[in-house]
Amino acid sequence: MSKRIRIIGAAMDLGQRRRGVDMGPSAIRYAGLQDRLVRLGYEVVDSGNIYTAQAEELYERDLTLDTDPSDGLSHHLDEVGRVCQKIYDRVQAYQPTDDRFVFLGGDHSMSIGTISAVAHPKLGVLWFDAHADINTPITSPSGNIHGMPVAALLGEGHPTLTSIGGAGPKLKPSQIVMLGIRDLDDGERLRLAKGDIRVYTMREIDEVGMARIGQEIMDYFDSFTEIHLSLDLDGLDPQHAPGVGTPVPGGISYREAHLMMEILADSHKVRSLDVVEVNPILDARNGTAQLAVELVAGVFGQRIL
Fold it and tell me: Which domain holds residue 34?
């Protein structure tokens, strides 16, 4: 796999109602992401941000809401879809290469574009998150698209979201493992009850520990050639990562998270990752962005010894 890492940002906060995560890419860059990766021996190319309209522009243009009752509720549907397609197109422009990708968000809706761009049948996806993000516009109580990316990648939901990079599902349920889950909507709980997606809740982490779960995840991904990590900082406990869009108490500790990153690094399978939901407005001295940099460095080989 290449020693070149491409950084692509999506300064988008349209997938949720709380403002601020659009500043996440800048906060993570300011925390020294590129320098840290260079010190680990990588060539780093920062490709800047995908242009995203501000919410105020969309209100003015009356493009904020899909109001067809048969389609359910989806705030900023057209613009989120446009940005995700732009992300997809940007990554495709760099193919075929074996470059690695770090995608900086922004809210988690961007992952519809990032994962669609790197998806293939032998890709495993680790969804590190307090939330399952497997709502559809019909099941979502809020209409916030950052709660819908997993469903969209499975081909479930509005065509604007499921058709990024082409019509149809980009992943099978068996390609996904969720880690750190502790906050589910009713519709998500029913969807996960099908049992076709492997889910590790905080209870399992508490009961058996991250070392054992990390090994189980690697065993599960053994037949996959690559892993995409979708790292939502709200997967961590808010005492470690306060600057996130939707904090949920009782999350993964810093050491547990870093151990999981080290286990991923040992696999040598991570080619791409998302870092999402960093909200500098809610942070303390950019600490959550600094933590994000530490975790990305762990994935790409930073070691104690």
Answer: 4-299
